[in-house]
């Protein structure tokens, strides 16, 4: 197997997984840095603090959405990696492209948290997630065309789940992009169905 991997240019899964897990962890941690209370001074009252917390709620909600959506995307990736023992060169390139978009999530989250009522911010944020899901879908397509990297033959239920997720996740993000032109802020609701898309990757 090692000789075949060298000849094909495939890369062992553990190294790519370690890079991916590390970058997701960093991006998820950076999301919370935007949750900052303004300086209230020593004379602040409970009412002042409650008002500041209420003012922070839009950013808290977008932080929560980003954390949950990124968690779903990471878990989807984990399920896919459970099916392979190595990654083809194309899969690795797509993984790196996806991680580049993942690293932008703290920026797009901060942008929409600060200007969530503006269509540009809403579209940039949704487009960031769309890019992550599209590279993931492309990677899944490549996986399906490279049986040599499979741990075992993929069953019909697994194939159906992989294909459904490859279409459904980008569809939710694309809907959020389109709705962002006319319903900034509310367009994020289009990504809620991501939470209910099946992830089963075993028979």
UniProtKB/TrEMBL annotation:
It is found in: Membrane. Coiled coil: none annotated. Belongs to the TMEM175 family. It comes from the Bacteria. The keyword Ion transport applies. Its main location: membrane. GO terms for molecular function: potassium channel activity; proton channel activity. It is a multi-pass membrane protein. GO terms for cellular component: membrane. InterPro entries: TMEM175-like. The chain crosses the membrane at residues 60-82, 118-138, 167-186. Keywords: Ion channel, Ion transport, Membrane, Potassium, Potassium channel, Potassium transport, Transmembrane, Transmembrane helix, Transport. PANTHER family: ENDOSOMAL/LYSOSOMAL POTASSIUM CHANNEL TMEM175, ENDOSOMAL_LYSOSOMAL PROTON CHANNEL TMEM175. It catalyses: K(+)(in) = K(+)(out). This is DUF1211 domain-containing protein.
């Amino acid at each position: 197997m090692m000789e075949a991997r060298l000849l094909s240019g495939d890369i062992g899964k553990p190294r790519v997984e370690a890079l991916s897990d590390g970058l997701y962890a960093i991006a998820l941690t950076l999301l919370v840095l935007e949750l900052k209370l303004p300086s209230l001074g020593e004379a602040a009252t409970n009412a002042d603090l409650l008002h500041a917390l209420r003012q922070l709620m839009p950013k808290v909600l977008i932080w929560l959405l980003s954390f949950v959506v990124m968690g779903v995307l990471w878990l989807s990736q984990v399920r896919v990696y459970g099916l392979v023992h190595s990654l083809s060169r194309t899969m690795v390139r797509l993984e790196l492209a996806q991680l580049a978009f993942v690293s932008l999530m703290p920026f797009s989250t901060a942008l929409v948290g600060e200007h969530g009522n503006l269509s540009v911010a809403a579209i940039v944020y949704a487009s960031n997630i769309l890019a992550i899901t599209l590279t993931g879908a492309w990677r899944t397509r490549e996986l399906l065309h490279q049986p040599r990297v499979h741990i075992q033959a993929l069953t019909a239920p697994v194939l159906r789940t992989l294909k459904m997720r490859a279409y459904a996740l980008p569809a939710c993000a694309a809907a959020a992009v389109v709705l962002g032109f006319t319903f900034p802020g509310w367009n994020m609701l289009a990504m809620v169905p991501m939470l209910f898309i099946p992830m089963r990757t075993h028979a």
